[in-house]
Design goal:
single chain, 334 residues, alpha/beta, Rossmann fold, 2 domains, six-stranded parallel beta sheet, six-stranded mixed beta sheet, 11 helices, 14 strands, 20% strand, binds beta-D-galactofuranose, binds zinc ion
Length: 334
């Protein structure tokens, strides 16, 4: 904020010298009235999935000039290095807030110390981080990924029980998200717990596919060259589920909860729910990307000097192929 006040002073001085016969105007820089907009630097992971695109749109819509913000947006193209670089630039620009959707859970301590030393509050959204000193960031707004995974595992246990398959060997392919992201870590540990709880569940393969459809297609195709004896494919987002389904259908495998491969997915994007309605995805656990309004509310609270909760888990639900309807899909925001 200090640097910006200096910039305003310099601009004012220049305007005063230059405009001789008019009263001094409010300093205007880059076409916007300065001083009363909250300057936010936002470091986004990338554009790896439909979920991510919806997340970015929600942030840009909420942190708009009409809502009192000047937003500096950086797309890290799925590289943490680019996020660290962007945050360092935000600090040099003297932003009022830094918002980051961290690609990975670790590696943030030193850059957040630099932000703290510069007196710039940091809001972590979407995925969470692990740092030595929790005071390095103001709040986390996102999902309880372990709980999302637990929801999926409990639903699968229930389905298999109903199908009388508690004694059958259940062969599971585990398509993981970005290795080391809190979304992958939470959803993975819930399945690991499920496998240890059900000794008839067998992990056939487990591989990180970076939350992308292309990578999941490539990895699933490779697994299918080794075996087609698969009962469940647990994919850690919709993009991966669609890629895995493409690969299975290419080799003539049916994907459905009745008498085909049971596909579990996360995100509940529109495309993912359409696959659920078609019966190709058996369960889709929602992961809510509409986080912009929550960030706007937290910043405004802090501007008013009101207390901020350390963690804000966003409400999420789940959809399955037996109960989902077109109306449910039509009524959703993304
Ligand atoms: C989860 C988010 C994950 C989504 C994926 O909050 O970080 O990253 O589940 C996205 O679709 O790529
Ligand atoms: Zn979520």
């Amino acid at each position: 904020m200090k640097k910006r006040m200096l910039a305003i002073a310099v601009v004012t001085l220049l305007l005063l010298c230059s405009c001789t016969n008019t009263t001094p105007q409010t300093p205007v820089v880059s076409g916007k009235k300065m001083g009363d907009l909250i300057l936010v630097g936002f470091s986004q992971v990338g554009a790896e999935s439909e979920w991510r695109v919806a997340h970015t749109e929600s942030m840009k819509a909420a942190l708009s000039e009409e809502n009192g913000y000047e937003l500096i947006y950086d797309d890290a193209r799925n590289e943490q290095e680019n996020q660290l670089r962007a945050i360092r630039t935000f600090i040099q620009q003297g932003v009022d807030y830094i918002v980051v959707a961290p690609r990975l859970e670790t590696g943030w301590d030193s850059i957040l110390q630099e932000a703290k030393d510069a007196g710039i509050p940091v809001i972590v959204i979407d995925r969470d981080i692990k740092v030595e000193d929790r005071s390095l960031y103001t709040t986390y707004i996102g999902s309880d990924f372990y709980k999302e995974g637990e929801t999926a595992v409990a639903w699968l246990e229930d389905l298999l029980e109903k199908q009388g398959r508690t004694e059958d060997t259940i062969r599971i392919v585990h398509i993981q998200g970005t290795a080391g992201s809190s979304a992958q870590l939470g959803r993975t540990s819930a399945l690991e717990r499920g496998v240890s709880r059900n000794d008839n569940w067998e992990k056939v393969a487990q591989e990180p596919c970076d939350f992308t459809r292309a990578k999941a297609y490539e990895v699933m195709s490779k697994i299918l060259r080794r075996t087609k004896d698969i009962d469940v494919v647990y994919c850690e987002n919709d993009g991966e589920a669609l890629g895995a389904i493409d690969a299975m259908e290419d080799v003539g495998l049916k994907c459905n909860a009745e008498d085909g491969v049971i596909v579990i997915s996360f995100d509940a994007t529109r495309l993912g729910l359409e696959y659920c309605l078609a019966g190709k995805i058996a369960l889709n656990v929602e992961c809510n990307p509409l986080q912009g309004p929550y960030v706007d509310a937290v910043i405004k609270r802090r501007q008013r000097g009101e207390p901020i909760e350390q963690v804000k888990y966003i409400n999420e639900t789940q959809f399955d192929c037996f109960t989902i309807t077109q109306e449910m899909i039509d009524g959703r925001g993304y």
